[in-house]
Write a structure and sequence with these properties.
Elements lengths: L8 E2 L18 E10 L2 E6 L4 E6 L3 E6 L5 E4 L13 E6 L3 H4 L1 E10 L2 E12 L2 E10 L10 E7 L2 E6 L17 E6 L14 E4 L4 E7 L2 E6 L6 E6 L36 E3 L5 E7 L10 E6 L4 E8 L2 E7 L7 E6 L5 E5 L4 E8 L6
Antiparallel strand pairs: 1-2, 2-25, 3-4, 4-5, 5-6, 7-8, 8-9, 9-10, 11-12, 12-13, 13-14, 15-16, 16-17, 17-18, 19-20, 20-21, 21-22, 23-24, 24-25
């Protein structure tokens, strides 16, 4: 794997892209490549302010030194199937990771003829994945799309997003884990609240690829089809409607998919994108070192190769797009323990990018 990161590359500062309401020329942060040559990286998990774990779609977990960009593989991780959108997805570290080494990994498991989302728990010791245990496996099916695969730990629970696997009715079947957000305790025991599948926490999702916390609230975004990407606040027991309720249309022909854009008994999105932005990764910024982003959600856009900012306002959400076309397809957005924001770009020569703070707060 080619690494050209020992000599850091400073990227040009991008001017902010147009928002739905207005343009802005304010600089939020200066992007800096810390490590490149990554093979379709998918997720970042920070061991400390000096070290991070990065998953690659091809089935590798790398430990990256955030000062030098040096990457060392973690050996012994579970087998996966790389096909279409499938491979390694998110990695999350237990709250006591510094002492226990416990980590959680979402991946596409099975075979080329039958595959599906799996959740694994292991212990990272030195540069090895040990004590590997499978906690969950979706029913295997054919096709390499709509896996979900995002993880979020909150208040003693582990949340895992799933996709509908391209089979729309599955998202409305409470006995099926497809098209949902699942909840487990940190030992892997199902902790759902919807009768049916024991881990089912919310349902009616198409393909959730962003989970984050805003305060104590869990937020998610998901891919729509032709239009209708959604941002949702997640609460246990809710049905978000897919495919019966959607702003999206059938690809190419543009005909309606669902019955309506809202219906009684289904939760409407807090925000939706038409045309689609293909969202992936999401973080909440509450750091004074990024004054332009404070109090905002930051979302990677694969389609428009930009960082999408959603800032709450009395009129609703105010959207701004940053770095449009300058960094590549943004797959993940995360904050390290000291609040520094980081990005992953999705390509055969993907990069881990630090967003250097500007206008730091006074001491």
């Amino acid at each position: 794997m080619l690494k050209r990161s020992l000599n850091f590359l400073l990227l040009s500062v991008a001017s902010a892209a147009a928002t739905a309401a207005a343009d802005t020329a304010e600089t939020a942060a200066v992007p800096q490549i810390v490590a490149d040559g990554l093979d379709h990286p998918w997720s970042i998990a920070f061991e400390s302010d000096r070290s991070a774990l990065v998953t690659e779609r091809n089935g590798q977990v790398l430990r990256i030194d955030l000062n030098t960009g040096t990457a060392v593989p973690i050996t012994g991780t579970p087998a996966q199937v790389e096909r279409g959108q499938g491979g390694y997805f998110d990695i999350a570290l237990a709250p006591d990771y510094a002492d226990s080494g416990v980590a959680y990994l979402a991946l596409n498991g099975g075979s080329q003829l039958g595959m599906g989302l799996e959740l694994w728990r292991g212990v990272i010791s030195d540069h090895q994945w040990t004590q590997s245990t499978q906690l969950y496996a979706m029913a295997k099916s054919f096709g390499g799309r709509h896996f979900g695969g995002r993880l979020q730990i909150h208040a003693g629970y582990l949340y895992l997003s799933t996709g509908d696997r391209g089979d729309r009715p599955r998202a409305q079947d409470p006995n099926d884990s497809a098209g949902s957000i699942l909840r487990f305790d940190l030992n892997g025991a199902p902790a759902g609240v919807i009768p049916g599948h024991p881990a089912l926490y919310s349902m009616g999702h198409r393909n959730v690829q962003g989970l984050t916390l805003m305060g104590d609230e869990l937020w998610a975004h998901e891919h729509g089809p032709q239009g209708g990407d959604e941002l949702n606040r997640i609460a246990g027991g809710q049905n978000h409607g897919w495919p019966r309720v959607t702003f999206g249309k059938n690809y190419g022909i543009g005909t309606d998919i669902g019955e309506a854009t809202e219906l009684p008994g289904f939760v409407s999105p807090n925000y939706q994108w038409t045309p689609s932005i293909a969202p992936s990764g999401m973080a909440y910024s509450d750091n004074d070192a990024y004054p332009a982003w404070r109090g905002s959600l930051l979302i990677g856009s694969l389609k428009f190769q930009s960082l999408v900012q959603l800032a709450p306002s009395p009129e609703g959400w105010r959207e701004t797009r940053w770095y449009a076309g300058e960094l590549g397809r943004i797959r993940d957005v995360k904050a390290s323990p000291d609040g520094t924001l980081w990005l992953l770009t999705d390509s055969q020569d993907g990069a881990l990018i630090r967003l250097n703070k500007v206008n730091p707060p006074p001491n």
